[in-house]
Amino acid sequence: MPQLFRRFSNRKSSDIQIVSHTKTKEQSKHTNGQRADSDSSGNGLENLKEAKCPCCGTLLQFPSDVKRLKCAVCQVTTVVAMRDNSRASSAGNSGGTISLFELQAIVDKCYARRAKMKTATKKELYAIFDPVAAYLNEGFHDIDILNNSFKTSHKRQLIDYYELTKFYELVMDLPTRSPFYRMLCASNDLLKKPSYTGGDFRWILIIWANPSIKRSVVGQKKNGYDAPKILAVGYELTKRCIGYLANIESQIQYGKFLKHLKCVSLNEFQSQVELLNIYITFQFSRILYRDLKASGNQHKRTLADNYPLVQPSPTGNELLSNEDKRDSLDLKNGKPAVVQDFKFKPYEYELNWHIRCAAKLMQTMIKANDKRYTITKNINLSIVEFYNVMLDFIDYRQDFENWRSDNKKSSKETPVTLADFPGMPMRRFTLCSYPFLLSLGVKISIMEHEVRRIMEYEAENAFLASLDKGKAVSVYFKIRVRRSHITNDSLRSIENHQRDLMKSLRVEFVNEPGVDAGGLRKEWFLLLTRSLFNPMNGLFSYVEESRLSWFAISPIRNSSRDGFPSDSQLYYLFGIVIGLAIFNSTILDLEFPRAFYKKLCGDLLNFDDYMQLYPETGQNLIKMLDYKYDDFTDVFALTFEATYEDTNKELLGHKPSVVSVELCHNGRYRRVTQENKYEFVQLWQDFFMNKSVEAQFRQFASGFRQVFVLSDSIKLFNHEELARLVCGNKEKNCFEFQMLRSVTRYVGGFNDKSRVVVWFWEIVEGWDFQLQRKLLQFATGSDRVPPGGMSTLPFKISRLGSKDSDKLPLAHTCFNEVCLWEYSLKEKLEHKLWWAVTQSEGYGFK
Are residues 137 and 47 part of one domain? Predict the structure, then answer.
């Protein structure tokens, strides 16, 4: 039996009690009888206490006289009350440390002993390096020793990761694995019986940095450290470190942990995020293996190469291995067979404490990521880095419905308990509560599911209303506009049909033929946004230094006049338009900064957001902050005022003027100095990004939220994802035409092997990026890739005739369709296609 299991097998303590799982009715009666007897001795129900397991977060209930108890979920011993001698013992070890310097000295002595021997057996090596093992065993058995070790002089960092990494590397480079294994076992002992009361958590971070942590879930091989017993203990360390870090309750310690994550290097932070995602994937692969084993298809199906099944190991811990990966693949034509229609059901993971704690810790990572910026640059990760693609296979509809119903309940979140109390309110674990783990594709699918349900509900209500009232009620939200008055007509249609916003949108242009199958809707969005951004309206200003648009600081119409809407009405209309575009899956050609979407999501803005919109001014402010000389006040001669040029006065027939605004009380009289320059920059940023556009943004946001008044799925998206929903993707790496080809449908006699079709794809893939964008604009009405990628674009190629032709290819943007003639030469097809995509715009009628 390995040492870590032997350590607990022969030693039982009278003050440790295991809290059991749910009880049967007979057991409950017997227990009630026992409790009734104990009432006379003062240990009845009223004397039951509660404690939260520091590892898995389970709520434990126990008699008041119990000093220690073992959680039956994660097997961690929780100390209820520290004994006096334990405190004294802890205090006695508070001065001890372990360090790279001390370890190196011990290792050198052991190597000196080894050099005196010509050869050494395995047992002799154990004996030679036993001082190293003893040193590690003592250090990793004591929380205080670890908390005092690997400290750094850097004020913002908790651990010297350079020294710690060298420390672990030195242990792993030894000619025997015994010291490393002893260190692992000692760490595991400490995590299982920590006497931890929620204080300093540095000791957990030190264990968390152990290289065996990652290898235990990915099966990396190096110098024989992939032995089953080492991987088994490494997995034990992994799950308990994640549990402890996820369940830090002290606000002071949690704040320190956030600060630590904010200040660690980007590589270290990214590595921890990757490890958590690997761990989550590992836990779901265990569920997959159990499901396939239960269905008798243990070695026949897998999700993909990257998600191998997990086989049970002799140690009782499921570990990944290369053999498992090979065995689990059913190769056909060189590709893994995919589990058809496989979905992880919520009941399979909602009570899994491993997944729950990993998701909770990842939530802390997200919070820290949002704070990882400086005055000069962002050092945080994109939301994409937090996605776990294994979760693409969850039953997202059921998970969303569970999350949605729980959010509507007024009961507060209750911790998971071991005892089964009938009727007790409990908030279920749902992955929608941790949306940063879900890929954008899953979130879009959730939104489509909800939108489809809402539209069906609204259509059904309209039909029933038509029966009650005896007159027809449209099941669609119809907008009928004149091209010459598109803004006024659109605003009037929206104001007259506020209750129809959640219906499917249909657009009709007055005195024009055509049925809206999607194309007229795209054109309405395009023309209306162009009208709203017309400089004559004065709603938005174009920032030349960033080539982005922002809300005008001084709009020109405070009230409607001469039949033209007021600025507040137009901002409200613009919010409605953005919401309808998302609701109807239409991409808009807008150029707004990141701050626009962050404000919509309610996120706080930082100086980096200001830098994106005003890069030149931001650089000047940074130069001011970097100036350290005594003549600061004379050089810059600034007061607490902000100035801007009001160009909208030109629209009213006046000359542009420079406007000065005080940033604080009596700001014109307050000089900017070395002492208050950071305050000045903060107030300057806040004025241009928030205060100066507060009324304008409020009207816009009210229109946007009006569309989603019945929607919960919009809350799943963060500002990065919201920007992609509105504007799609325009990055070069998103134009994957091989992916588009794989989902293309062919009509009229064409197929993927047809000569003209093969030529078409060869030509398109050979074009430069700008031509590819124009092709997408020609075929779909937008040069942006859908937020879910090329594979989500319903693309179609149809055949116009069976003979050669000199006519140009056609496009139906309503259906994302390109129509090709049976051209005789590839060069002719390329020439005609180039003319079509570069010289055409709009529809066949106007």
Answer: no
